[in-house]
Amino acid sequence: MPSRNRYVAIIEAIFQAKYRAGQRAVAFEREDIVTFASRLNIRLPKNLGDVIYSFRYRTALPSSILAEAPAGETWIIRPAGRSRYQFVLVADRPLIPNRILR
Q1: Which of 10, 52, 56, 83 could disulfide-link 30, Cβ–Cβ 3.0 to 4.6 Å?
Q2: What CATH number should be reported for the domain holding residue 47?
């Protein structure tokens, strides 16, 4: 994924608009994708859900978002109801393959 594509621009704008220092969860809705794409004059993705899906399963959140996490923690996106989501702080515990278990 390019470093600055429309998905990145949209998700950064949503986070920056809603995040306040010290928050551990930042709520947003699917409709925010439409709102912020319009504000940024970005062509709306045909599949709005793919914006969320891509950052949940395919690629890391932008560094501008990850930089707001305290040491030892990272931001992820979790579902929070129908068409609702949250950026949530969780412990940063990357999976590391065990060479013994090959």
Answers
A1: 83
A2: 1.10.10
